[in-house]
Amino acid sequence: MITARAAATFDPVGRSVATARAFVRDTLQGWGYTDVVDDAVVLTSELVTNAVVHAGTAADVLCLRTEDGVRVEVSDHYPEREVPLQSSGLDFGSPDREGGRGLLLCAALASRWGVEYTPTHKHVWFQLDLPERPVGIRSASPVLPTSLLPVAEQRVRVAVVQTDGSGSIASWNDDASFLFGYAAEQVAGKQLTDFVAWPHTPGTNTGIADALQLSRWEGSYGIRGADGRVIPVYASHLRVRDADGEPSTVCLLVRDYERAVLQTPVRAPVSDSSAENRSTDPFEIFIGSPAPDDLDGLLQRTVERARDMLDADAAFLLLATDDETELEVRATTGLPSARQRFARVPVEAGTGRYGSARMPAVHEDLTVVPGAVPLLSDTGMRSVVTVPLKVEGRLTGSLGVAAEAAGRYSNEEALRLQFAADRIALAVESARLGELERLRRGSLSFLVEASDLLAGTLDRDQTLALMAQMTVPTLATWCAVYTIADQSSEPYLSYVLHEDEERIDGLKALLSSIDPPDPVPAPGARIWPAPTEAGHEAALRTSKRTLGRDAPLSMGAAARTTLATAVAVGGETVVLPLVARNRVIGMLTLGKPSDEHFRQEILELAEDLSRRAALALDNARLYSERMAISQSLQRSLLPPGLPDVPNVEIEVIYRAAGEGNEVGGDFYDVFPIRDGAYGFAIGDVCGTGPEAAAVTGLARHALRLLAREGFGGPAVLERLNAAILDEGARSRFLTLLYGELWPQEDGSALLKVVCAGHPLPLRLRQDGSVEAAAEPQPLLGVIEDLELYEQEVTLEPGDVLLCVTDGVTERREGTRMLGDDGLADVLAMCTGLTAGAVAGRILRAVERFAAEPASDDMAILAMRVPEPQNL
């Protein structure tokens, strides 16, 4: 009886073979037929290859589930192809021949198989029966004494969480609420990844999002509880689909120390007494087959098998650094692994040295030799045996097992463990080098991206934010950046970031309450215990205040924040100096949650990042200072405001081109000279930068001073010309329009104007006509003897005088230029407008003339004599 079916069609291309294999594997694993998966995948691979490669047609694959096994049919669209004839001996020819290999494998592996023809298709099918086994039994272990059974609480809680195809939580049982503190309605619809604390190293490991997409997955990670603590769990994932074909993932989770409830037993090598000549790999005898293909999985299985082999309570494995001076904890079982993982101890000398790393050692009672194995301090373990892992005489690690009772081990156990260590040392070192290579590639990619991001901004605040965002969560769980303004200033807490945004405020408050780290310029990361100690003290005070209550439900939000912050800073905290141009400009602080350590490769990567970030931060500081000076100087070169001139409207629009509005360039001024007389000027200094700024400042202040001394327009400009030439090599030529304005009693305004090399002022009459209001004369700063003269202009009521710099008239788009004529045409359309409206319309016309932003400064000065109001 067929109980389920799955079908798919694959295109006639080479990659379809791998896709077909994955389809069959996922289908059979989803049905629970793991015993026949491997054979089915091999046969499907050969038959699909025949169809898409040799026959050159699409392949249809149909999987049928029955009560006794599975039937797989592979069809191609080339029915006239010959089927190898069967002789009485089922001879399909040489196994090395391409043709017929799939049928040869069917005959060897399948319970039944056959070939069927239709007018359009050829079907090759095979049947795989499930192996006979006792009903309901998948695996079994011998009866064990009660003392050797796995430890669990009075009631084992199994959290059942189901996510939909997008990873959102669709189901959350009562045990999940008990274990993690969230009610089902609090988490429904949220991403499971929001609650997972996934161990991650740049360039290595599979992420939680990837694990949820696998057909089956099993392993350890953490869940962030409602109180902020990370709860280590052991999980088993199974990806299923409903009757409508929609996929989802069922996740079973238990506390990590209760993993025996879910953990699949290690598959031991299959013994075959009939194969006397087959050699047995000692590595597979110890580690099991198949061996994990990742370093963490290999090390974890190694310590578990070592513990079981010597009937121990705990086991651990440490890997040596390249210089063999330190050992790093990489895998433990039966110990508080979160506290120990990635912790380092010296091999030869120093506090807490590992005294027995290079030779096998047996310690019958650690209470007699305290500190001999630092990893086991305060764990309750008394007897221990440790052996080195060596490759070509070089120390690569240390493997140890421990028991709570004294005197459990002797030299015989040490020899057994050393034999096992010798078998796995090469595999462990090979896996370590592979991980290191992936880490280095990932680190290089990380640093390249970080450099690009840091180089892309000169804003100090954005640089601080980028520094923190690049470290969290890739390198650390939380990050704080301290900055130092100058040598006499104390470090200032400038930026704080945590991977959980709800923890940022509490973390910032905690760090603000303690003294900042010392600004030590020595390179490298150093441990900073202050946040951990402060968090522990704050949590202790909070716990005392809530003693006797039903915490945490009855405690306030502030108390819960304090406890969560204590957990967040409970791990290792390191400080890296930010050194730029031989000066400490700040510190980069990285932290881990409770009892976690940084691995050395991460610290080295963080050190590289800190050097790049320090230079970027100092560049941003220098740029900000330069910008502040530039903008302050620019403001000082422009008048603070416009005076109120009786019966005359005056409007000025100034636009500095370029990023940062560099000083120099165009300027303007309108100022009172004496009662009833006002001066106005608009000019353009050649160039930009400090030299141009000096001339700009000289011109504006000289104009005011000379005009108020009673000099007329030509005399003012001639003396200004002499002052500019006195600057010598620093001088710049200057185009300048200067005039004096006298409002008249009849409502008109009298102007005396001198135009020294500047674009001519334009006069707009009430009838819409536009004409130049002055004649061109030599510019300033070029020749010594100038003979300038002034011209009188009378503005009647309703008339407008427009003065601009060449940034307006020389506005370009390709070969087109606005020019004097274009400006006059725009001004002619401004009849009846106020001075402000005229200036605004001129600016809009200039901006719309070309799509690109303006590349030159612009100054627009409009003066209008209003028409008398009819009473």
What do you see in this structure?
- This protein is an alpha+beta fold and 871 residues long.
- It has 5 domains: 2-81 and 102-129, Histidine kinase-like ATPase, C-terminal domain (Heat Shock Protein 90); 156-261, PAS domain (Beta-Lactamase), CATH 3.30.450.20; 284-424, GAF domain (Beta-Lactamase, 2-Layer Sandwich); 457-545 and 558-628, Beta-Lactamase, CATH 3.30.450.40; 638-865, Phosphatase 2c, domain 1.
- It is 32% helix and 26% strand.
- The strands form 7 sheets. Strands 7-6-11-10-9-8 form a 6-stranded antiparallel sheet.
- α1 (16-31) runs antiparallel to α2.
- The longest helix is centred in the middle third of the chain and has 45 residues, at 411-455.
- The radius of gyration is 42 Å and the shape is elongated.
- The model is unreliable at 81-99, 267-281 and 550-554 (pLDDT under 50).
